[in-house]
Amino acid sequence: MEQAKLESKVLSILEDKIQLIKTSEEGGIYLVGPIRLPVNLYGETVVFRWYCWLQRDIITDDYEEIIEKLSSDNLAEYQQSSVLVYGDFEYNEDALIRMHSICHTGDIFGSKRCDCGFQLKQSMKMIKEHGTGALFYLANHEGRGIGLFSKAMAYVLQENGYDTVEANLNLGFVDDSRNYEDAIHVLKVLRKKPVTLITNNPKKLEALKNSGMHLSGRTPLWGDVSEFNENYLKTKVARSGHLQEEEGCPNG
Ligand SMILES: [Zn+2]
Predict the structure, then answer these.
(1) Do 81 and 53 contact (CB within 8 A), yes or no?
(2) Is 98 a catalytic residue?
(3) What is the pLDDT of residues 156-187, one digit of tens each?
């Protein structure tokens, strides 16, 4: 099908908000934003700036080519990651960062089997109260990188006595296959100064340290323990090396 040409006005508006931020053998990563995003946070309206990024197999700074291909690429079939930024993120001396792994059941349905939904909202609140920071929402991290369908399978195993780590291993996955590389790259585009990471997960700390990003510290994030997620949280500490509780969603 013949693709419609973009109107020059549309192109000039979009060109101001899109940038090629990374190139590699696989192609380029394109970042769009900021977009003003008022959010309902515990009943209060808080305004974040939202950015989204996308991997494409072509590398170009002719963004017309990128934009024109979007409608034929069936992007809704694939999740994209994004980041919510708050306050003077570029220049403020200390900023709070949260790398949040997507959790369909916890974030969207409010599942009590894990603490993801609580952590998502709580870290947004911490960032707001701190004055500046960013929440990265990582779309390819479902169930610690095993995907939603496999996570459902892992839940079936968990209902039959397997813990979260055993369930993943028995499905042929490594315990944790999450990758933070692209998110850290986006972070570096948005901020050069040191950051404090909201996490209890030493792997996330390591990933950030190894990237060369200046890390000024770590802020733990706990809470929302219930009878439904008690075992899940214990497993995180006992089996996954978590500093206390928390983190990501081991199909959790
Ligand atoms: Zn979860």
Answers:
(1) yes
(2) no
(3) 999 999 988 899 899 998 877 788 999 999 99
| Ligand 1 ion: nearby residues, β-carbon < 5 Å | 103, 106, 114, 116, 249, 252
Catalytic position from the list 163, 176, 182, 224: 176
* Encoded tokens for 115: 């603490």
Q: How far is the CA of 227 from the centre of ligand 1 (A)?
A: 15
Question: What whole-number distance in Å separates Cα of residue 43 and Cα of residue 6?
Answer: 40
Residue 176 known to be catalytic: yes
Sign of the alpha-carbon dihedral angle for 145, 34, 32, 6: positive
> pTM for the whole thing?
0.88
Gap from CA of 14 to ligand 1 centroid (Å): 34
How far is residue 81's CA from residue 188's CA, in Å, rounded to a whole number? Answer: 16
User: Residue 249, SS3?
Assistant: coil
Tell me the per-residue pLDDT of 205-220, one tens digit each, with 9 for 90 and over: 888 899 888 899 899 8
